[in-house]
Design a protein that fits this description.
Layout (H helix, E strand, L loop, with lengths): L1 E8 L2 H17 L4 H23 L3 E9 L2 E9 L7 H7 L1 H9 L5 E5 L2 E7 L7 H22 L2 H42 L6 H21 L17 H13 L8 H5 L2 H17 L5 H22 L2 H15 L3 H4 L1 H27 L3 H18 L6 H11 L4 H14 L2 H17 L6 H17 L6 H13 L5 H34 L5 H5 L1
Antiparallel strand pairs: 1-2, 2-3, 3-5, 4-5
Helix pairs in contact: 1-2, 3-4, 4-17, 5-12, 6-10, 6-11, 6-12, 6-20, 7-17, 7-18, 7-19, 8-19, 12-21, 14-18, 14-21, 15-16, 15-21, 16-17, 17-21, 18-19, 18-21, 19-20, 20-21
Amino acid sequence: MLLFEKEYSLSLAACDEISAEIAEFCTKQHADSKDVLRYRLSAEDALLNWINRGCEGRSVLLKAGRKFFSPYIVIEMDGSPVNPETEQSEEFGEYCNIILVNLNQKPVYSYSDGRNSLYYRIRKKSISQFQVLCIVIVMSIFSGVFGALFIPDDLRRMILESVIDPIYGAFFNILGCIAGPMIFLSVAWGIYGIGDVETLGTIGRTMILKFLKYVSFAAAGSLVFFPVFGNHFTESGDQVSQISMILEMILGIFPSNILEPFGTGNTLQIILLAVVIGIALLYMQKQTHDIAVIIGQINALVNFLMGFISRLVPFVIFMVIVSLIWSGNLSVITSVWKLMAVFLIALLVIIMSYLLITSVYHKAKPSVLMRKSLPAFLLALTSASSAAAFDTNVETCKKQFGIDPSLVSFGVPLGIVVHKPMAAAYNLIIVMYFASVYHVQCTPAWLLIALFLCIVVAVSTPPIPGGGAAAYTILFLQLGIPDEALAVALTLDIITDFLITAVETFTLQMALINISSKMDRIDKSVLRN
């Protein structure tokens, strides 16, 4: 729905008028004040870029409206193609560009029918996830207790079997349907985009390898919590049998055809296909550029659909809590305290490990590192959004830690996706917890697969709404955990997401300090001051 449309002749005065109109529209749409300023400055930069590149006097059209209840702004300019984002594209790389678009840090540029177009998706200020969770829990408990007291047993059973269970099953099936393609597209597009810019190829490979090493260590360290939940290895034969199971797992990665992994939901096969296709696209960039563009566009579409589906999560949580109350199966929830206790211990261990290693290696006081990282940490903690803390994170790395600006511009958006030690550790912790609750048969081979999946899923899940739901869906399907555990996991995810996002922000800063030091691209005097 188009709300307004105004035409201008590109000039310095028009820049001021357009940016003022954008700020006014965003404010009316209840956008956060920081986002309003970001959209305004971004539009000003784009318009000034067009003027500096000889486009003054061209016709510029400003449009604003809503699509699927989401506000948007479009700036169109007549004439030959002039991408105002070109310089930034070369700085960040194509993959990091897509990340910044998903984080609402950059507009989407396109050229069609003789018009340059910049599309801004406006993020409205919304009620916090924690508030939504509190409302849902209160309403579900009230509804569950009321139904248990006043609704006849036969009617409750009929509602459970004919309404709640089918709806929840359909939701789980939808998540399973989209989760596989989302991971495939994210991994394939990510591999292609990292090597898209030759000058950043070495930096990108070095960073990815370092990030993966840190994530793997954090996840592997969480294995010490395996017996805490009462887990124990199931008797499954001798050592030769275990080796055979691991070998079967490795060989089972290779699918019999290209469509089989998506039909069976085999995550390992999906990831293998994504890696192979991503590398092939990387080595055949000129010949396969159109295919890569299509993959990128489908990736954006799937991410949008997952974000839309994530809006249904509160309703699913409501139904499952009511179902647990009516069926008398509340033990799944009452034992959650142990999971949260282990999660908090792992969180503190990861924070202290990163802090102490960085402090000792670079001879910087832990108090100094903590004080400098605190602003970005608090923003991420209070918003559960890496996008909200993005600007502060970048400025801290550049000015407070003395990291080379070009390394920061590339490393922060890349790290938001790839560097997820706390997410990988939590994935493994929650998988081991539900394996204990639902008495899943655990063998060394099962635990090895769980460790590998938790690392890969954490790294390959994009930072979008619904990403956590997709991750848990994949893990539970692959590791034999019942789908009823998903609602509990999603409920906890709303709480843990605040802490995980804050920890990821802090550990990313420490990781960039270490990586930039290895590359000799950090000012140690600024870091230690």
